[in-house]
Amino acid sequence: MFSRALKPVASVAVQNGAKFSTTSQKNFKVVVAGAAGGIGQPLALLLKQNPLVTRLALYDIAPVTPGVAVDLSHMDTPAQVTGHKGPEELAAAVECADLVVIPAGVPRKPGMTRDDLFNTNASIVRDIADCVAKNAPKAIMAIITNPVNSMVPIASEVLKKAGVYDPAKVLGVTTLDVVRAAAFIGEINGVDPTTVKIPVIGGHSGVTIIPVLSQSSPAVKLSDQGKIEALTKRIQEAGTEVVKAKAGGGSATLSMAYAGARLACAVLRGLKGESNVVECAYVKSDLTEASYFANPVQLGRNGVEKNLGFGQLNAYEKELLKAAIPELLKNIKTGENFVNK
To answer: Which among 58, 92, 165, 243 has the fewest CB atoms less than 10 Å away?
Structure first.
């Protein structure tokens, strides 16, 4: 059900049993906004290997940005790489983009919550969204910047004000919660985690992360409710687990880059016209009281082609959803107020 990230490629890439020639693809331009950071660099590395990417524009305010672009340009894969440093070069980076992936922002540090990051990161996302509205209004935006629950509403409100908002084209990247859940279940079940299919719904922080363990395939080999609750808690707090393990040295960067590349790949496959491309993403929604919500969506030529909902929840998962909604409503309002105040 859920798509997988592309493997490194030379002349031919293989994914889910299908072969893609690197010489016959549509010309997709992808922008990484925040490309010099801990997520941005490995994300750009993964995207440079994707045969669906023929133009890769790297943007950041960091002085090293042009060097990152030159470094990646030495890789023998088809994507042409350009580097863009500073706000004055953002428009050139974004112009004519098909997909803008945004990991830009300050990272979490020990003791920080995602909400602590809000003020700085909100301004960054607002400005990038404004530039997208002016220079690539038809581009899909995939937002990694935390707190995602608020950043997606911010980008949406900016696009609304510019008169170019399309809810099918603004996605919050919650893929990391999905890959973490699959990794943990694979370990518990003693199976290859790439064979695990598990929807994670809600949002992308704390109690808003709802792993629907009852829908896991294969089923999670946990019968004790206490262990199910412990696994749920681990998935919800996995970001903090990484922050603590890095002891002040950063947050989840490599796994987030992998997850971001996986969603970006899925978006591009949808744009290309591939059928049945499904990932979880945080999108405009009317499924719950929250006006944005993460769950499986089908991706197509216009971004989100169909919202697949989240199916039947068990009693425990319904309680998780009940706990998540007030937090989501607060996060969404915070984002909208930031733009509209």
So the answer is: 92
Q: What is the pTM of this model?
A: 0.91
84, 169, 204, 262: the active-site residue: 204
Is 36 annotated for ligand binding? yes
Q: What is the pLDDT of residue 14?
A: 33
Where do the DSSP E strands lie in 49-172? 53-60, 80-85, 99-102, 140-143, 170-172
Cis peptide before 103 (omega within 30 of 0): no
Cis preceding-peptide flag for 193 (omega within 30 of 0)? no
How large is the greatest C-alpha to C-alpha distance in the chain, in angstroms? 56
Distance between CA 241 and CA 231 in Å, rounded?
13
Give the side-chain half-sphere CA count within 13 A for 161: 16
CATH 3.40.50.720 domain span(s) along the chain = 12-174
123-134 per-position pLDDT tens digit: 999 999 999 999
Is 301 annotated as a binding-site member? Answer: no
8-state DSSP, 214: G
CATH 3.90.110.10 given to domain 175-252+277-335: yes
Cα gap 286→209, rounded to integer Å: 18
Q: Taking the CB of residue 192, how many other CB atoms lie within 10 A of it?
A: 9
Q: 128 labelled as ligand-binding?
A: no
Residue 256 is labelled as binding a ligand: yes
Domain with CATH 3.90.110.10 in the chain: 175-252+277-335
Bridge partners (DSSP) listed for residue 281 = 295
pLDDT digits (tens, 9 = 90+) for 274-317: 999 999 999 999 999 999 999 999 999 999 999 999 999 999 99
DSSP run (H or E) holding 209: strand 209-211
Verify whether residue 84 is a known catalytic residue.
Answer: no
